[in-house]
Write a structure and sequence with these properties.
InterPro entries: DUF6985. By secondary structure, this protein is of the alpha+beta class. 28% of the residues lie in helices and 34% in strands. It has one domain. Strand 1 and strand 2 form a beta hairpin.
Length: 153
């Protein structure tokens, strides 16, 4: 499908294509996922969410970096206790947001299918929780939650 905002998309459990995402000064190739069903229209709220993200990308990414850092500070001791011998490697103490760079890898940007709100989930792999990962959910341009990947699906 060739969408007027998202461009060329292929269907595989949602409409998908590759996209470059820059966080902590590094570019990563991620999968852009537009939630939906094959044969169904993409909602205008989804297009608006993506356009808003593109128009405010630098500000949003800075807010994501800060939110992930603050979230990590709130959970690092709990994970260090669980990880025991691997704590220094997988859940080290950090001094700044930039220290998160080797701990977090972006994998997907999910444009959620909502009729009345513009919602985007940013999904990451993280060293301290390889099973549940990490996500940041944005609603109408504001970060509303940081947690495991289920908050963004």
């Amino acid at each position: 499908m060739n969408d007027k905002v998202f461009g060329e998309l292929a269907f595989q459990y949602g409409w998908r294509r590759k996209e470059v995402f820059n966080i902590w000064g590094s570019e990563s190739e991620v999968t852009l996922v537009v939630s939906g069903s094959e044969g169904k229209e993409i909602l205008e709220t989804q297009r608006d969410a993506y356009k808003n993200y593109l128009a405010n990308k630098d500000k949003i990414v800075q807010e994501i970096e800060k939110a992930i850092y603050e979230f990590y500070l709130s959970v690092v001791d709990e994970y260090r206790d669980m990880l025991e011998d691997e704590a220094d490697e997988l859940a080290p103490y950090v001094e700044s947001s930039l220290d998160m760079k080797p701990l977090v890898t972006p994998i997907e940007i999910v444009i959620l299918k909502m009729k009345d709100t513009q919602e985007i989930g940013f999904i990451f792999e993280c060293t301290w929780d390889i099973d549940a990962g990490l996500a940041v959910r944005i609603e109408d341009g504001e970060i509303v939650e940081v947690g495991d990947q289920t908050i963004a699906l």
